[in-house]
Specification:
The complex is a heterodimer of chains A (about 425) and B (about 160). Chain A has about 425 residues and is mainly alpha-helical. Chain A has helices spanning about 1-20, 25-45, 55-70, 140-170, 170-175, 180-215, 215-220, 240-250, 260, 275-290, 295-310, 315-320, 350-355, 395-400, 410-424, and strands at about 50, 85-90, 90-100, 105, 110, 115-120, 125, 130-135, 365, 370-375. In chain A, helix 1 (about 1-20) crosses helix 4 and helix 10 crosses helix 11. By secondary structure, chain B is an alpha+beta fold. Chain B has one domain (about 10-140). Classes of the chains: A mainly alpha (about 425), B alpha+beta (about 160). Chain A: This is Palmitoyltransferase. Chain A: Its EC number is 2.3.1.225.
Chain lengths: ~425, ~160
């Protein structure tokens, strides 16, 4: 829609307006357009703040603690949703346990069923952008809609100007070079413009309000901190004044992507001595995810020891801020504000079965009493170009392949199969 | 430092992983990254309480520094925005700088304090900032060599004991 509008604008109105008023108009329009595209790309391709899934050890440890807490009285397939309560700034906040990621979600995090990941400070999943909007890319998203609203207002204004001027000077225009066929476009253009202006400007206004009160779309829609819930209810995350809230959201420090790190248990292969180490590292990371064998645990932690012994070069931190293409769900189903898909309730937290994923070849979920053995669809972003060769990309894929419990050979084969699929 | 590196490698050869302890996040201050300073009971016999708390407190301090919202972070943010974030091709963010400091600190703590006690700290960054993982090793007399043998075949799955 953006592109169509912009093109119509450029081709029909620009030549006329630049003659009549000033050539600066298309120039400004062009700059704005590029800025909009830039922020759009940045929003789409940056990691919103995905929380990596728990390692099997962590998950086991957590489950143990939960069992102790529950008294392990509730048997059966699905124990009641697990929550922890925390007091933040005087408000009681419930932390929910995410069954897919096997972690207790930090406050303000939420699990997105489309991306199949927990995202920090989850705002919403935007289909227009094809990505979740979360902690790390909220500022890009905000700049995107803000600049987009400026652009649409800009275009709209000048389209209207064009129409007005034209109608005033009908006589002169017949002599001009512009073909009459162009003008119908202008009318259509202005109609399209009108609607998009209102919706985009409305969205920008809404997000401006959210930023100034330091809430997420999620929280606003659920009314978590609204006064209607009770007199004592207030937002514990707000800094108190609008200015601080805005600054914190837009100019605060940008935390690095956590998912890159997940693929790296050790530093890059060149750093460790000996070719055999290269193989073992790969094997170690793979076994880390295939897991559960005590010996494999030992292997991987031995390598961690090795890593601790060698100087860790935190390689490519500069690229961590650079983008991981998330396979975008570009099913356009309305403006962003209406999508609040971040709220699956824990009992229904096997979204990977229901979401339409790219990889349909998935091992069905087998729920065992001891542990959950399931494979998530390969929606997980992979670090492109982080490692020299193609095969290490499967690192991160295997990391996202969560497989607890017993080591069947069948299970391992299926993991390997999935790994092969994901590396395609 | 070679001596310290040695001690880690010897640990690798002679120790086996007994268990892992996880220090969870402390969310009482909001979404900032802080870890609980509660002393895990499994470490009771392995390390002095005070040393452990000292480590966690220092880490918490580092993270607070990384996430601090103040004049310099605003400046960095605005500068980055003005340059369309291209500036990050040349320089690191403040957060990343602090993360480097943290990993150095953890490595140093491991070498000096934890490895001699048969413990190993894992950088929380490698665990998605969810936990500080502390691996507890037991001394084991036998087979250091089997580890390197089995590790190369671990890609085949089964990991010989």
């Amino acid at each position: 829609v953006l592109l169509i509008m912009f093109d119509l604008f450029s081709f029909s109105s620009c030549p006329y307006l630049s003659e009549k008023i000033t050539p600066a108009i298309p120039a400004i329009g062009g700059i704005l357009f590029f800025f909009v595209m830039g922020t759009l790309l940045r929003t789409s391709f940056s990691d919103p703040g995905v929380l990596p899934r728990a390692t099997p050890d962590e998950a086991a440890d957590l489950e143990r603690q939960i069992d102790i807490a529950n008294g392990s009285s509730s048997g059966g397939y699905r124990p009641p949703p697990r929550t922890k309560e925390v007091i933040i700034n005087g408000q009681t906040v419930k932390l929910k346990y995410c069954f897919t990621c096997k972690i207790f979600r930090p406050p303000r995090a939420s699990h997105c069923s489309l991306c199949d990941n927990c995202v920090e400070r989850f705002d919403h999943h935007c289909p227009w952008v094809g990505n979740c909007v979360g902690k790390r890319n909220y500022r890009f998203f905000y700049m995107f809609i803000l600049s987009l609203s400026f652009l649409t207002v800009f275009i709209f204004a000048f389209v209207i100007t064009h129409v007005i001027l034209r109608s005033q000077q009908t006589g002169f225009l017949n002599a001009l070079k512009d073909s009459p066929a162009r003008y119908p476009f202008t009318e259509r253009n202005s109609v399209v413009c009108f609607f998009s202006v209102w919706s985009i400007v409305g969205l920008s206004g809404f997000h401006t309000y959210l930023i100034s009160s330091n809430q997420t779309t999620n929280e606003d829609i659920k009314g978590s901190w609204s006064n209607k819930r009770g007199k004592e209810n207030y937002n514990p995350y707000s800094y108190g004044n609008i200015f601080s809230n805005c600054c914190a959201a837009l100019c605060g420090p940008l935390s690095p992507s956590l998912i890159d790190r997940r693929g790296f248990i050790q530093p890059d292969t060149p750093q460790l001595a000996g070719p055999s180490n290269g193989i073992t590292m790969y094997g170690a990371t793979q076994s880390q995810s295939n897991m559960c064998d005590q010996d494999q645990c030992i292997q991987s932690t031995k390598f961690v020891l090795q890593a601790a012994a060698t100087p860790l070069l935190q390689s490519e931190p500069s690229i961590t801020s650079e983008e991981l293409p998330l396979p975008g769900k570009t099913t356009i189903s309305g403006p962003c504000a209406t999508l609040t898909l971040g709220q699956p309730t824990p009992p229904s937290s096997m979204p990977n079965l229901t979401s339409d994923t790219g990889l349909t070849d998935m091992i069905p979920l087998k729920e065992e009493h001891e542990g959950h053995q399931f494979l998530t669809p390969e929606e997980a972003p992979s670090p492109p170009g982080m490692l020299p060769s193609g095969s290490p990309i499967t690192h991160s894929h295997t990391m996202h392949v969560l497989s607890l419990a017993s080591q069947d050979s069948l299970h391992e084969d299926s993991v390997r199969g999935l790994v092969k699929l994901s590396s395609v | 430092t070679t001596l310290q590196v040695h001690s880690l490698q010897e640990l690798r050869r002679s120790a086996s992983l007994a268990t892992k302890v996880f220090v969870q996040r402390d969310y009482s201050d909001g979404t900032t990254c802080q870890f609980q300073t509660k002393f895990p009971p499994e470490l009771e016999s392995r390390i002095e309480r005070q040393l452990f708390e000292e480590t966690v407190k220092t880490l918490n301090g580092f993270y607070a520094e990384a996430e601090k919202i103040g004049g310099s972070s605003y400046l960095e943010g605005c500068l980055a925005c003005a340059t369309a974030y291209f500036i990050f091709l040349c320089m690191e963010t403040h957060y990343e700088k602090v993360l480097k400091k943290i990993s150095k600190y953890i490595q140093e703590q491991n070498e000096k304090i934890y490895a001699p006690r048969g413990l190993l700290l894992t950088d929380p960054l490698e665990r998605g900032m969810r936990v500080i993982e502390i691996s507890i090793y037991e001394d084991r007399c036998s087979s250091g060599s089997s580890s390197s043998g089995s590790s190369s075949s671990s890609s085949g799955g089964g990991g010989a004991g």
